[in-house]
C-alpha cells in the first residue's frame, strides 16, 4: 500500500507518479523524496540511489528520474527488523542484576 508522506493517507496509483501529482486528501506533492523507496535518512544525500542528483527540499516535487513510490509494507517490515535487532542488542549488553 502506498501512503502520502504528509497525511499518511492511502494513495491509489498503479502507474508512475508524475511530477505535478498531488495527494487527493491533503494536496501534498507525491513525487517527492519522502515518498521514494530510495529515501534513507542515514545515506549520503539521504538517498540510496548513487546516480541521483542531490535534492535539497525532500518535501517538494522534484525531477528525479529514479523515483519509485515506496510501498508501506516494505517500510513496516524494515521497522520491525530494526526493532528486533535493537532488542537483541539490548539483551546482549544487559547488565546483570
Helix fraction bin:
10-25%
Q: What share of residues are in beta strands?
A: under 5%
Spatial shape = extended
The chain-level mean pLDDT equals 86
Task: Describe what you observe in this structure.
- This protein has about 100 residues and is mainly alpha-helical.
- The chain has one domain (about 1-95).
- About 20% of the residues lie in helices and about 5% in strands.
- Strands 1-2 form a two-stranded antiparallel sheet.
Task: Summarize the SSE layout with pairings.
Elements: E1 2-3, E2 10-11, H1 72-92
Task: Describe, in short, the structure shown.
With 97 residues, this protein is mainly α. It is built from one helix and two strands, in the order ββα. The chain has a two-stranded antiparallel ribbon with strand order 1-2.
What labels would you give this structure?
97 residues, mainly alpha, two-stranded antiparallel sheet, 2 strands, extended
Amino acid at each position: 500500500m502506498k501512503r502520502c508522506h504528509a497525511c499518511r493517507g492511502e494513495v491509489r496509483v498503479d502507474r508512475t507518479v508524475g511530477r505535478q501529482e498531488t495527494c487527493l486528501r491533503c494536496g501534498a506533492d507525491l513525487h517527492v523524496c519522502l515518498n521514494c523507496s530510495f529515501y534513507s535518512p542515514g545515506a549520503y544525500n539521504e538517498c540510496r540511489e548513487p546516480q541521483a542528483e542531490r535534492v535539497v527540499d525532500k518535501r517538494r516535487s522534484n525531477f528525479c528520474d529514479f523515483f519509485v513510490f515506496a510501498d508501506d509494507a516494505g517500510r513496516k517490515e524494515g521497522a520491525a527488523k530494526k526493532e528486533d535487532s535493537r532488542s537483541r542488542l539490548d539483551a546482549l549488553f544487559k547488565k546483570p542484576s
